[in-house]
Design goal:
The chain has helices at about 35-45, 65-75, 110-115, 115-120, and strands at about 25-30, 50-55, 90, 100, 125-130, 145-150, 160-165. It has about 170 residues and is α/β, with parallel strands linked by helices. It has one domain (about 25-165): Rossmann fold, CATH 3.40.50. The protein has a 7-stranded mixed sheet with strand order 1-7-6-2-5-4-3, with helices on one face. Helix 1 (about 35-45) crosses helix 2 (about 65-75). The longest helix is centred in the N-terminal third of the chain and has 14 residues, at about 35-45. Bound molecules: adenosine-5'-diphosphate and magnesium ion. Adenosine-5'-diphosphate (ADP) binds near residues 31, 35 and 62.
Length: about 170
């Protein structure tokens, strides 16, 4: 229900904090890593406190490239890679705190509770969750689901990036 969870008061019915209508969907095609980076960068620049992005896609599809763009767009200059030994990596030097989750190796959703994921999802920063389908039940009511896919027929460097407001 709207406004039930902490920190959701600023959300209006059917819209997330970005003001995008729930259910809206757009597809962006990129033809090289720099274009995927640039899309991430734009999202980082436009993102608002409390926004949650999920990132789905096979290994090597460009999730890290995209995430590095988001970080750059938030004004983060330190290097961003996938959090290998921790579930979440926190960057605080940008315009907003950036919470980069990689839940690929998670054993149990309990681990998310232990690291205090709610303070990230319902806080004032921007969360990005790689492999979010593994923790689907913990995702907030509204988030932006980003799927990156290859299409071999369109070339080695082609990616189709679908952004959907959930
Ligand atoms: P993931 O994090 O999803 O495992 P990475 O971002 O680490 O993937 O790697 C993506 C690889 O694909 C990089 O080597 C990158 O240069 C390459 N690549 C080629 N074309 C693209 C594209 N359009 N968008 C993103 N990455 C691309
Ligand atoms: Mg990666």
């Amino acid at each position: 229900m709207e406004g039930q969870k902490g920190g959701l008061q600023t959300r209006a019915g059917g819209r997330n904090r970005g003001g995008q209508a729930k259910g809206s969907r757009r597809v962006v095609e990129t033809f090289g890593p720099e274009e995927t980076f640039a899309l991430g960068e734009r999202i980082g620049r436009e993102s608002l406190p409390g926004q949650v992005y999920t990132l789905i896609g096979d290994l090597g599809v460009g999730k890290t490239v995209f995430t590095q763009g988001v970080a750059a767009g938030l004004g983060i200059t330190e290097p961003v890679s996938s959090p290998t030994f921790t579930i979440v990596q926190i960057y605080e030097e940008g315009r907003l705190p950036f919470y980069h989750f990689d839940v690929y190796r998670i054993g149990d959703v309990q681990e998310m509770e232990e690291i205090g994921y709610e303070d990230c999802f319902y806080g004032e920063g921007v969360s990005l969750v790689e492999w979010a389908d593994l923790i689907e039940e913990l995702l907030p009511e509204h988030y932006c689901r980003i799927v990156i896919e290859k299409d071999w027929e369109k070339g080695f460097d082609y990616r189709r990036i679908t952004l959907e407001e959930i």
